[in-house]
Design brief:
The strands form two sheets. This protein has a three-stranded antiparallel β-sheet with strand order 1-2-3, with helices on one face. Strands 4-5 form a two-stranded antiparallel sheet. It has helices at residues 4-14, 19-33, 50-70, 75-93, 103-116, 120-128, 138-147, 151-162, 169-177, 183-208, 211-230, 234-252, 255-258, 270-282, 293-304, 306-322, 360-379, and strands at residues 326-328, 344-346, 352-354, 383-388, 394-398. The chain has 17 helices and five strands. The protein is mainly alpha-helical and 400 residues long. Helices cover 63% and strands 5% of the residues. The protein folds into three domains: 1-135, no CATH class; 137-261, no CATH class; 291-384, no CATH class.
Length: 400
């Protein structure tokens, strides 16, 4: 087992620009000009072993990035590793042949790598482009639902698998004794059931916020990883390991973890409103269960920076005034309501909320809500497509 320092050194070297004869640049260029896996007649020579080179590079960087993340290493290094692995996996599947048996796994691995690198939009786009015959295993389909935030579909898929009598322990034992399945089939069924059960626990944890459920999900995935490793079930080991990192990453940035648990003084119904807010976002067709890293950082700045708090306070006052709430207190011509300690908000029911109870994190929560609303409005704009830049990074551009 490598140490954290060894993993960091390997990833630093493997993710440097131009490594392996500019392998990633060659792979991305080839994926752009080919169609259904066929290159034009006048295409340059990308190398006969480029598919093998890309897959070996992507898998090695993905494994090292997951190990470094699980070991608590430098997040900048492993996030860069995930991004490079995602680029390589995408180069393998983009405009590739539909006859490639590994295209389904590569697409799932690439989307998961992008997600763990904090590029959720790229992960969503890569999964959304998968063909109908994507050649995915049941566990890989479950991961696709999770990445797409189709938690309702994930729940239906998990129930269908776990309630199927053929996937129960008794039926598996009977089939083994009768010689209907071999040990590899039994391992595949047991590991897949364990992954589905773990994702079901995780889906319920996102719905309820119960920490004990996420711990049970992690425990089940560790068992699935151990079983697949001991049985040399390579594809299931990758699927379980990716699922473990996705679950851990999503939970750490989920609304249950990010939003404050306690409200300001005098806000007796804060817990109910918090649960209602999280539940409403969870129940959407595309569940919104977490904050993006940029949103978390914006919230931190909003609560730490005095000027940001003042700007948010100004906006809070304007929003309150537009909703026909009365602001009682003197307001100077050149001073905002944040400067007046005597200001207080009077609700229609007569309840008075002094301004000094609006703690900085409450203002930050308001800023998050406003940012979320703006993001929702922007997301209704249709995407023009998916493109690559010559720098080797991938992105989305909005239709003008």
């Amino acid at each position: 087992m490598e140490t954290v320092d060894e993993l960091a050194a390997f990833l630093t070297q493997a993710t440097a620009d131009g490594v392996r004869g500019r392998l990633q640049a060659r792979g991305e260029a080839r994926s752009i000009i080919r169609r259904d896996g066929v290159l034009p007649d006048d295409a340059p020579a990308f190398g006969e072993t480029i598919d093998t080179d890309l897959s070996e590079y992507a898998l090695s960087v993905l494994r090292a990035s997951m190990a470094l993340r699980e070991g608590g290493g430098n997040d900048e290094i492993w996030r860069r590793g995930f991004a490079r692995a995602g680029n390589a996996f995408e180069a393998l599947v983009q405009n590739g042949s539909h006859e490639d048996v590994g295209r389904g796994f590569y697409r799932i691995a690439g989307a998961a790598a992008y997600h763990l690198a904090s590029y959720s939009a790229l992960a969503f786009s890569l999964i959304s482009q998968r063909p109908e015959n994507a050649n995915l295993s049941p566990a890989e389909e479950a991961l696709a639902h999770l990445i797409l935030r189709d938690l309702a579909g994930l729940g239906r898929r998990a129930r269908a698998w776990l309630l199927n009598p053929a996937h129960g322990d008794a039926n598996i034992s009977q089939a083994l004794r009768a010689g209907e399945i071999d040990s590899d089939d039994a391992v595949r069924l047991i590991a897949t059931s364990t992954i589905f059960r773990a994702l079901a626990f995780f889906e319920f944890a996102l719905q309820t916020g119960a920490a004990v459920l996420i711990e049970e999900s992690r425990s089940l995935l560790r068992r699935a990883i151990s079983l697949a490793r001991n049985a040399n079930a390579v594809s299931l080991w990758w699927t379980a390991r990716i699922a473990f990192n996705l679950v851990d990453d999503l939970w750490s940035s989920s609304l249950h973890q990010v939003l404050p648990l306690d409200g300001p003084a005098g806000a007796g119904n804060y817990q109910d409103l918090r649960q209602l807010f999280i539940g409403e976002l969870f129940g959407r067709d595309v569940a919104e269960v977490e904050l993006w890293p940029s949103q978390i950082e914006a919230a931190r700045r909003a609560t730490d920076d005095r000027r940001s708090r003042r700007r948010v306070a100004d906006q809070c006052w304007q929003d309150t005034n537009r909703r026909d709430r009365r602001i009682d207190g003197a307001r100077g011509a050149q001073a905002g309501p944040h400067c007046n300690a005597a200001s207080r908000i009077i609700r229609p029911d007569g309840t008075i909320i002094p301004s000094d109870v609006l703690e900085p994190w409450v203002l930050g929560l308001v800023a998050l809500w406003r940012g979320w609303s703006r993001w929702r409005r922007r997301r209704r704009t249709p995407y023009a497509g998916y493109c690559h830049r010559h720098t080797g990074e991938a992105g989305l551009r909005l239709a003008e």
